[in-house]
Write a structure and sequence with these properties.
Helix content: 40-55%
CATH architecture of the largest domain: 2-Layer Sandwich
EC number: 2.7.13.3
Number of domains: 2
InterPro entries: HATPase_C_sf (IPR036890), HATPase_dom (IPR003594), His_kinase_dom (IPR005467), HisK_dim/P_dom (IPR003661), HisK_dim/P_sf (IPR036097), Sig_transdc_His_kin-like_C (IPR004358)
Shape: globular
Pfam families: HATPase_c, HisKA
Number of strands: 7
Distance between the termini: 68 Å
GO molecular function: phosphorelay sensor kinase activity
Protein name: histidine kinase
Strand order of the largest sheet: 2-4-5-7-6
Low-confidence stretches: 213-227
Number of helices: 5
Mean pLDDT: 80
Length: about 270
């Protein structure tokens, strides 16, 4: 009778021990999530305050400075307009990432020939004046007839962000290459955007897709200051398409960066 009682008391104690360890691990995980969220909102708040402060300063100067010249007034108006556009862009980024995180059904993939889609995207960008001093290279085989399922509107955003990131860090004789291939099993296509820019620091390469990370401003498209959500949005869009996105980068003499997107091939 005593042995039976002892066994009954020992079994719950083991369950409580396991439960305690599980709760401890969960608390550690929640603590890490909370820290990242805190860093994210702290960075967002800082980035939102910056253009607001510039707009306020410009308005105060206009109000308090008598006899301001026409040229100075125009310059201040341009500054206000630029900072307002930057603020609008950041708010749009935050809103989009929130929508993607809470409702992936806003992305509506359709079957598309991968080669044709990439060609259309490439030649549209080639005609853009911001790339006039850049060597744009399309490296997609003529017979690349694999079909993928993507929402072209959202996927355009991914590739545009990668092109703009590359453009920001190009020097003289800068080049951007859009290429496509398949994996060895021919079950996935690999879409790559490569550049010969200055590269991303090895200390930052593992963090660039995180929402809270602002250590590398390559995450923000050229000409826009923002909360650094560009690559977080890219990653979320790619994952909604059942894909992955990775980055390889080198600094120094052999510098350059490659973002590779892997997507499943649609079977017949």
């Amino acid at each position: 009778m005593k042995e039976h009682s002892k066994k009954r008391y020992d079994e719950p104690s083991l369950g409580v021990e396991d439960l305690s360890q599980g709760l401890y691990k969960s608390n550690l995980k929640l603590g890490s999530i909370n820290q990242k969220q805190s860093e994210y909102f702290s960075n967002i708040s800082h980035d939102l305050r910056s253009p607001i402060a510039a707009i306020r300063s410009a308005i105060e100067y206009l109000e308090e400075t008598p006899g301001i010249s026409t040229d100075d007034r125009k310059n201040l108006y341009r500054l206000i307009d630029k900072k307002a556009a930057s603020l609008e862009y950041m708010i749009d980024e935050i809103f989009l990432l929130s929508k993607l995180s809470s409702n992936s059904t806003i992305v509506r993939p359709v079957p598309l020939p991968c080669g044709n889609y990439l060609e259309d995207f490439f030649f549209t960008n080639e005609a853009d004046s911001k790339f006039k001093d850049v060597d744009l290279v399309l490296d997609v085989p003529m017979s690349f007839e694999y079909t993928i399922e993507i929402d072209p509107n959202y996927f355009d955003r991914v590739l545009n962000n990668l092109f703009d990131n590359a453009l920001r860090y190009l020097g003289e004789d800068g080049s951007i290459t859009l290429s496509a291939s398949t994996d060895e099993s021919k079950t996935h296509v690999i879409i790559s955007v490569s550049d010969n820019g200055s590269g991303i620091s090895p200390d930052n390469i593992d963090k660039i897709f995180e929402r809270s990370f602002t250590g590398d401003i390559s995450r923000t498209p050229s000409g826009k200051s923002g909360a650094g959500l560009g690559l977080s949005i890219c990653k979320k869009i790619v994952e909604i398409h059942s894909g992955t996105i990775t980055c390889r980068s080198k600094t120094g003499s052999d510098h350059g960066t490659t973002f590779a997107i892997t997507l499943p091939i649609l079977k017949d």
